[in-house]
Amino acid sequence: MAEILGDSTANNLVGTGNGNDSIVGFEGDDTLWADWNWNIGNNTLDGGTGSDYLYASSESNLLRGGDDNDILEVYGWNNTLEGGLGDDTYNLYYPSANTIQDAGGTDILSTGLKLSLNGLAVGEAGLEKQGTSLVIDINQDGIADTSQDLVILDFFNAAGTGAGAGFIEKIDYLDGNEILTPPTSPNIITGTANADNLEGTNANDSIIADAGDDYISSDGSGNDTLLGGDGNDNLIDFGAGNDFLDGGIGNDTLDGGTGNNTLDGGAGDDYLSSNNGYYYYGYSTQDSLFGGDGNDTLLVGSYWLSNTLDGGAGADSLYSSYSDSSLFRGGEDNDILEVYGWNNTLEGGSGSDNLYNYSDSSLLRGGDDNDLLEVYAWNNTLEGGLGDDTYNLYNPSGNTIQDAGGTDILSTGLKLSLNGLAVGEAGLEKQGTSLVIDINQDGIADTSQDLVILDFFNAAGTGAGTGFIEKIDYLDGNEILTPPTSPNIITGTANADNLEGTNANDSMIGDAGDDSISSDGSGNDTLLGGDGNDNLIDFGAGNDFLDGGIGNDTLDGGTGNNTLDGGAGDDYLSSNNGYYYYGYSTQDSLFGGDGNDTLFIGNYWGYSSTLDGGAGADSLYSSGSDSSLLLGGDDNDILEVYGWNNTLEGGLGDDTYNLY
After folding, report:
1. What is the DSSP letter of 565?
2. Which of 9, 284, 628, 645 is the most exposed place for a label (fewest CB within 10 A)?
3. How far is the CA of 520 from the CAs of 515, 517, 525, 540, 565, in angstroms?
4. How far apart are the C-alpha atoms of 238 and 201, rounded to whole Å?
């Protein structure tokens, strides 16, 4: 047994993996992980004060959120979850035999099941009141068994007529009050085996279409149930009630209204929308969308309210505008999650997923496999998980990255400095096991404003930790672990100089004039052209940095992981050691800067590079590339690639894309 204690800051605490650990976060917004071993549990996690995230993937654990708004998440059984005061969220991925004890606030429980208000029956997740507890028949055997099913203590008050101290306001797609007071008998409308056109009323309608490609609609104020059955159905409910739409088998289209709705696509390639026809500032409220099997599209547009979107099995696409505190789950296969709004959770699940977040204060979890996590705002947490992950941060201030393995890539769009912290430079600093990148370049490594990579270093601080990232912009991660020795400095004049490097780590500064600077050594070299039309060539094996400066410059890199920056002027940048097809470059970054630039790279298959034209009408060419990024920037650009798995973004202007 180990006792793992935090402090008054925001802690990231992980168990030993041996079980029987006591993990306490105390003050601050903490993250507590019991362990990664499925078969070992019996841990106690106590978040203390602050908005905490508690996670356990094993059985027989006790999770205590404490005060404030906590997230308690388990992937095993026989666990006890105590949210405490505050607005808590309970995520149960294997909810059998778990127990929940809440103590107040506006709470959310997600089991991933379709709950039934029709009592207990085999094949349904029915509900039963036992004393003041609510028991959910998780294994759907028609029996509410507290030793096998999910128990919510004190859900009802002592009289059994209202909410108790452990009442939970939202359980999956159900409002907690619907469980306290089940709805009255509905108005039942039944279709045929043909293609039916069925329309609801202002009552609580239950419309059952049966087989056929059916059209079902309701615009009344009741709490409606629309069941499409077999066939490619179209279900529309724009009423104000809390509605349930189930497409059934087939490629269905479901569109919800302004209430708290649940949409289930069922099997097939379905399109689910709950926004009353509006994407931006839509009229949906707090909705749950389940894609089911198949390649589904889920879309919700809401007024800053919380929703749940679950793609299920299949390659799904989930979109949301202006949601707040919502949950997006891609499920199995390769999914796309694209979200506007803050305080959201994006979970890719299994498969190689693409997660995009355009606002702040959200959590992105890639899961297993090779994922892309991309954010355009600040104060987000990115967890790539296992696999070879790519992190793209377009506004990296205040973000935190927690990786868990694989060969990973991070792009911030900055030129990082290995020379320590200084105003005007994106310097690096080791803080404990974390790496902090000075994003705002104020000379201070501030975890609240800059980019933090957790566990980049091991506990001894001498090597790579579990959160190590292999490539950060143009730097190899190992260069950060072991910074290079002091360079050999060679300085030119204001005239046209001819400077040649050595086998050491050379730093050659051309100054003004049309300079020729070259190096063929094995060191990690820096070549700075300065003013004038300069020619910079480095065919050595090191990881080199070439900067043309002002003027129309020519830059040619070698076989290492190089960074070429043309600067101002019409520049020509090449990193292929003189070969176009199957060149000798590896993983390079080319930045054109201002002016009409030409960027050209020839890779061995399997290496990824970044080409950024910047401002001006630029031409970007890449051959033999794999998973490279080409950014045209402003103006009219040409982007041409020979290879696969590449990303081409033309930016503003009339752009031309050539793919071979």
Report:
1. E
2. 645
3. 17, 11, 10, 4, 19
4. 12
Q: How far apart are CA 517 and CA 508, in angstroms?
A: 7
Share of the chain above pLDDT 70, in %: 93
Q: What are phi and psi of 264, to 5 degrees?
A: -125, 115
Task: Give residues with Cβ within 8 angstroms of 357, minimum separation 6.
Answer: 339, 344, 346, 364, 374, 375, 376, 377, 380
**Residues with Cβ within 8 Å of residue 161, at least 6 apart in sequence:** none
**DSSP string computed for 154-218:** T-B-TTSSSB-TT--SEETTEEHHHHHSPPPPPEEEE--SS--EEE--SS-EEEE--SSS-EEEE
Encode pLDDT of 631-654 as tens digits: 999 899 999 988 888 899 999 999
With tokens 């043909």, the residue in question is 194
Task: Compute the distance between CA of residue 544 and CA of residue 560 in angstroms, rounded to an integer.
Answer: 7
Q: Six-digit token pair at 195?
A: 């293609």
Amino acid residing at 548: G
Q: What is the distance between the alpha carbons of residues 479 and 523, in angstroms, rounded to a whole number?
A: 13
d(CA 291, CA 269): 8
599 with 616: CB under 8 angstroms? Answer: no
Residue 611: enclosing H or E segment and its boundaries? Answer: strand 610-612
Each domain of the chain, given as residue ranges in start order, spans 187-369, 488-659
Say how far apart CA 342 and CA 352 lie, in whole Å: 24
**Alpha-carbon distance 41 to 79, whole Å?**
9
DSSP 8-state code for residue 138: T
Q: Among candidates 469, 422, 488, 470, which has minimal Cα distance to 586?
A: 470
pLDDT tens column, 428-474 = 999 999 999 999 999 999 999 999 999 999 999 889 999 999 999 87
Contact (CB, 8 A) for 534 and 510: yes
Q: What is the DSSP letter of 485?
A: P
Q: Residue 511 and residue 513: Cα distance in Å, rounded?
A: 7
The neighbouring-strand residues paired with 225 are 206, 244
Beta pairing class for 488-491 and 475-476: unpaired
CA–CA separation, 192 and 210 (whole Å): 6
Contact residues for 237 (Cβ-Cβ < 8 A; gap 6+): 200, 217, 218, 219, 224, 226, 243, 245, 255, 256, 257, 261
Tokens in use for 45? 């996690």
Above 60 in pLDDT, residue 556?
yes
Q: Give the pTM.
A: 0.56
Closest by alpha carbon to 51, among 75, 32, 23?
A: 32
Q: Is 508 exposed, middle or buried (0-12, 13-18, 19+ CB in 10 A)?
A: buried
Contact by Cβ (8 Å): 527, 519: yes
